[in-house]
Every structure is written in structure tokens, then in C-alpha cells.
Amino acid sequence: MKIRKIRQDVLRFIGHFFLFHLVNVLCKTLRITYSNKNVIEALEKDNSKYILAFWHGSMLIPWYLNRKKKMVALTSKSKDGDLLAKILKSWKYRVIRGSSSTGGDVALGIMVDYAKNDHSITITPDGPRGPRHKLKAGAVITAKKSSLPLILVGVGIKKKMILKSWDQFEVPKLFTKANLVFSDPIYIDRELTYEETSKVIDDCEVKLSELQLKAEKNLEN
Strand, helix or coil at 36? Predict the structure, then answer.
């Protein structure tokens, strides 16, 4: 049993090593354009922190682009989350493990603590199990409790493979075009009621879906 476990650990390490390098090579070939990126640049110029949210199925490119910034990322406690966490740590993210179904309240509390202590946060608000493009409360609640601006980003990919997963995960093809569209900063009043906060969550869901469509349409020209 011990030998089998060692063999499994070695295979996992080799798999992670090759996947990490393949993802880096792939992303380096992409031709990426941006819309409204100046909102991010302005915040970073002032050394201001923020919360960045993008759909789970489109997460590869924004997470790659924000590597080495030492941002905080939320991933699930699943086996898929294990692999993602290793890649994100290789990209210098601080990784929090949890989800809406497992460890969610604890993970949310940790995210808020990081946000209050001068860290930017990245989050996929429909993850880790969906429903697809259904925005859960985490990003908005973290923004509300920390007073950091929430920025939504749509991700369009010209040529891609779509996996048969709940999130229809998008894998860009080599050298393809991609477009990212950023929202203006969304500041959420800490004094909002439960009902008012729920309305903001619904509005952000609609907005993020609109940004996703815009990013995809920008590639049609």
C-alpha cells in the first residue's frame, strides 16, 4: 500500500508539472485585447486593492494574467480544486480552500480578512459546482464587508475547445485571440439591508453576463 501511494504521488506530481507548463505555454501564445482595462490600471497605480470576479468556465485567462501579483484566490476542497490550487500557488496566489457547500462560511471570513488587510481577491462567483453563470453571494459580500470595489470581467475567446463539464470550461486554442472587458468599479454600501444586497447580487449577475457577451462579440469584428 505504501509503495502504491508513493507511485500515485509521483504520478500526480508529474501530471501537475506538465499541466502547469502546458498552460503557461498556451497562454503565452494568446493575442489578448482589453476593454476598460484603465479601471484596473488606475487602482493598481494608486496601490488600491479590489475584488475581481469572472465566470468559472472562463477562469483560465484572467487567473493567468494576474499571476505573480500575490492576489488571493478561492478554490474548492475537491480533487479538481487540489489541482487548481497547486497551479495558482505556482503563480504566486494565496489560496483559500472552500465553497458554498464545504467550508464556505470559513472561506468567506478568511477572504474578508484578507480584503480588509490590503489584499486583492479573485473569485469565480458561480463556482465550484454551479449552476453555470449563477452569481453566488461571496464576491458581493466580500466587497460589502471590506469596502473594496468589485470589478467584473467578461472573457471572450475566438477559437476554443469547450469541455463537457457543468461550467462548459473553455480551453483556448494556440495563438487565438481573446478579449477581456472590465466593468467600472462597483462599490457596495456596508449598510445595505439583506434585500438590498440580494438586489445587488442579481444586478451583478446580469452585468457579468452582459460583459461576457460583449467580450465574445468584440472578437467577431
Answer: coil
CB-count exposure of residue 75 (10 Å: 0-12, 13-18, 19+)? buried
The single residue listed with the C-alpha cell 487540489 is 82
Q: What is the pLDDT of residues 12-43, one digit of tens each?
A: 444 455 678 889 999 999 999 999 999 999 99
Residue type, 160: K
Residue 36 CA to residue 46 CA, distance in Å, equals 17
pTM score:
0.90
C-alpha to C-alpha distances, 209 to 54, 164, 215, nearest whole angstrom: 10, 20, 10
Write the CB contacts of 70 (distance below 8 Å, at least 6 apart in sequence).
Answer: 92, 93, 94, 119
pLDDT tens for each residue of 67-84: 989 899 988 887 777 888
Spatial contact of 108 and 143, defined as CB atoms under 8 Å apart: no
ω into residue 125 within 30 of 0, thus cis?
A: no
Q: Are 129 and 98 contacting, i.e. CB atoms less than 8 angstroms apart?
A: no
